[in-house]
Write a structure and sequence with these properties.
Blueprint: H1 9-34, H2 45-52, H3 56-77, H4 83-104, H5 107-111, H6 117-138
Helix pairs in contact: 1-3, 3-4, 4-6
């Protein structure tokens, strides 16, 4: 018999906050791939040049990261164990794009160390969501 244990209120709060976080990622994906010109005035010309020069595959991997994060949150909301491997995919793709952003582009020379803040935050959240979903499955909150 496969039974699930009722998750605590914190599970729902974390899951909803994670969904909102990933929805912001979808918005960033949209801006970066379909409305890049709209952010020209919010960054330096050098930063914009780095963004413009990103390869096509970067946008594809970014999409996988963002949409697997959304799917993982939805699976958490419906309490399914499938959230764990989906968050694993999200984590791997986040690591790939953020490491490329920091080390494979000139963003650190262009924008300085402050350019690392958001990528490191995104990596930290992806790591947290992966391990949180693993813990939720282990605790019996997911079926």
């Amino acid at each position: 018999m496969n039974t699930t244990i009722k998750p605590p209120t914190s599970f729902w709060i974390i899951t909803i906050l994670a969904l909102l976080w990933n929805l912001m990622g979808v918005y960033q994906y949209y801006l970066g791939n379909f409305e890049l010109e709209s952010i020209r005035d919010t960054v330096s010309p050098e930063e914009f040049s780095v963004m413009e020069s990103l390869p096509t595959w970067y946008g594809i991997v970014f999409a996988i990261a963002v949409f697997s994060g959304i799917l993982g949150c939805i699976l958490l909301l419906v309490k399914k164990k499938g959230a764990v491997p989906v968050f694993g995919i999200s984590l791997l793709t986040v690591l790939f794009i953020e490491v490329y952003w920091l080390l494979g582009t000139d963003i650190m020379q262009v924008a300085g160390y402050s350019a690392a803040i958001m990528p490191l935050l995104v990596i930290a959240v992806a790591i947290f969501l992966y391990f949180y979903s693993k813990g939720a499955a282990k605790n019996g909150w997911l079926s």
